[in-house]
From TrEMBL:
This is Bile acid:sodium symporter. Keywords: Membrane, Transmembrane, Transmembrane helix. The chain crosses the membrane at residues 37-55, 64-85, 91-111, 123-143, 155-173, 194-212, 218-241, 262-283. The keyword Transport does not apply. InterPro entries: Na+/solute_symporter_sf.
Amino acid sequence: MLAFLSKHASTLLALAAVFGFLLPDLSQATLPFLPYILFVLMLFTLIGIDQPLLVKALFKKQAWLYALLHGGVTTVVVASIATLFNASSELLLALTAVCATGSLFATPAIVRSMGFEPLKAMAFTIASTLMMPVILYINLTLFSGDNFALDMKSYCLRLAVFIFGPMGLSFLIHKSMSKERLTRIHSKLAQFTVLLVFSFPFGLAGQYRWLWNSDREFAIAMFFLALAICVLFFIIGFVCYRKHGKEEAFIAAITAGNRNVLLTYSVAGAFLGPLYLPLIGALQLPTYMQPIVIRFLLKRHQKLQRT
C-alpha cells in the first residue's frame, strides 16, 4: 500500500486537493493540525539529509542568490503586475506573501523523481526558507497599509518554532546518533510520512471552496490568478538559470514553482489578510499538477530527441 502511494504520489496529491474542495467541512477540520504536521515533516526531511554536504552547498553564494530571486525578484515582478491591474490592497498583500514564501520541503524529492540532482534543490529550499522571514517582513510592512503593526514577539516566536525548531532538532539528532542507525530509522519513518503529505492539499483546498460558495465569479478569477503565478514563478526560475544549463534551469524552476505557503501562514497568520487562505487554497491544484505536467513534457522532449 505504502509503495503504491509513493509511486503515484504526484497524482494522489492533486486528487487530495480535489477532495479538499469537494469536502470543505472535513478540509476545514484538518486545517488547525497542519502546522504541527508541517513541523514533523520538515524535521523528518532534514534528518534524512547528508548535513555536511548541505552545509557546504549553503556556504556557496549561489544558494543565497537563488533565495533572493525566489522571494525578492518574484515580489517585484508580481507586485508590479498586480499594481498595473489595480489589484486591491488585500489581494496585493496575499500575492506578495506567497512570493516571500520559501520552497516546499518536498521539492528535492520531486526534483529527484524527474532524474535531477536533489542536493542543489535542497540548498535552494533551505536558503529560500531562511530568507523568507526577512522578505515577508518587508512585504508586510510595504503592502499592509498604514495601520499595520506586526507583533514582533509573536513573529519571532513562530519563526523559532516552525523554522529554526526543526533545523535545530535535526542537528542535535545527527550529532547524537550514528549515520547507520539514523539511516535505518529514517528509512522506516519515510514510508509513513507520505501519508501525512496528503493532508496539505486536502486541508488547504477547502479554504478555496468557501470563496467558491460565496462569490463564484471571483473564485474562478482567483483560480486562474493562482495558476498564472505558479506558471510565472516557474518561468522566472527557468529563464534566470537557463544559462547554467538545462538541468539547473529545471531545478530552479521547479523550486520556484513549489511554495511552502502553509509555513508562511504558520508564521504570520492573521497578518496576511483575508484573501491569503483562499489564494493558497486555489494554488493547491496548480502546485501539485506541476510535477505531472513537467514529467510529461520532459518525456515528450526526450522522445523528440530520439527521433
